Amino acid sequence: MLKQILHEFIVPTRGRGFYEITEEVAALVRAGGFRTGLATLHLQHTSASLLIQENADPDVRRNLEPFFARFARRNPTVVARHRAMHP
Known about the structure:
Layout: H1 22-32, H2 58-71
């Protein structure tokens, strides 16, 4: 028998950065009583990304922050454009 739950939660942010949501997701899994299964996370924002890492070493996060700051620089002369794909 397939068991599933659907839940939406909002992650308050203070702009660009990394936001830890592991505990929120783990709490939903615990509340659902799941022992095994698949968790699907969908971000409803076109410029957001989901990064999954083991998080055992805090240096990984500290290394990622400056990398992405260089990779996606804020430059007022460059305008990023994207178009929503609607049927």
